[in-house]
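User: If you would, consider this record:
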Amino acid sequence: MDELVHRETPSPNWNERALPISMVVLHYTGMRTAAEALERMCDPAAEVSAHYMIDEDGTVHRLVDEAKRAWHAGKSYWRGVTDVNSASIGIELVNPGHEWGYRPFTGAQMDSLIPLLGAIVKRHDIPRANVVGHSDIAPARKEDPGELFEWERLARVRLALPVPCIALGAPFPNDGAFLLGLERFGYDVSNGRAAVAAFQRRWRPARIDGEIDGELGAILFKLLLERDRGHAR
């Protein structure tokens, strides 16, 4: 693992885990520079951190030991887990985000992320369906890592679920049934429109409007079917 980490940048913002590790949460830093992001995550007053941060040149910083609970998820939920910080590894990718000029992630970042994520997933036996974005676990609050993140590149090396091939139809009879399916897949649907937008951001980023349509229904139905068949690992 150490050869995948270029710099030790310890953060004081951690405590002990209350749950076993079962997921990875991917973020963007959402700050103007990497230096600002590191300063914030290492500031005790900020009370935020992550386990790793990957700079745009591919440099990997380790801020918190994986055995410890970093403070990256905030109020969040995924598949019945409400203490996501205790159950997850948090990885921050340097990117100014939607507030400061969102842009594509660099090739160097992805080249560093893939082996790092691969090692984490293997070590903790994390299923692909539990490699998620911050927007997936906190749809009413967060947009990161956003619609430009290369989920399909991770999927090609079996580090995330791929967007399923679908046959268009109407697998859910109404919007309420779709939201129940979305909840079954893992999302917090207390804010339905935000949950739908988060699902779009991950699974159909070409159009993010928070509106349920047949294409989204077909995608969700196939994801649930694949999970029930045991193909989500």
The chain has nine helices and eight strands.
